Amino acid sequence: PCDATLPVVLQEVAARWGLSVAELCSGSKRPRVVEARTAAVILGIREHGLRGVDLALALGITRRSVARRLI
């Protein structure tokens, strides 16, 4: 995947959930934000081939949290 893919995924998911990218990456535990982060992980890894570690860093979550969202 190209370097531009991660920001595009974050922007697309944030827009679909009515959030800003900053909210998506904030570490908030609000259900809507947690759902959006899960969608970003699934979309990023399954559809765009992004690495879990890159998503974890961008979303402010752990690699383990990324792995849990894929189950």
Largest sheet: none
Distance between the termini: 23 Å
Q: What are the segments in which pLDDT stays under 50 over at least 5 consecutive residues?
A: none
Annotation field: number of helices: 5
Proportion of strand residues: under 5%
Helix content, binned percent: 55-70%
- Say how many strands there are: 0
Instruction: Describe the global form.
Output: globular
Over all CA atoms, what is the radius of gyration? 11 Å
Mean pLDDT: 93
Determine the structural class based on helices, strands and strand pairing. Answer: mainly alpha
SSE ordering = HHHHH
Explain what you see.
- The protein has 71 residues and is mainly alpha-helical.
- 68% of the residues lie in helices and 0% in strands.
- Helix 3 (31-47) packs antiparallel against helix 4 (52-59) and helix 4 packs across helix 5 (63-69).
- The longest helix is centred in the middle third of the chain and has 17 residues, at 31-47.
- The radius of gyration is 11 Å and the shape is globular.
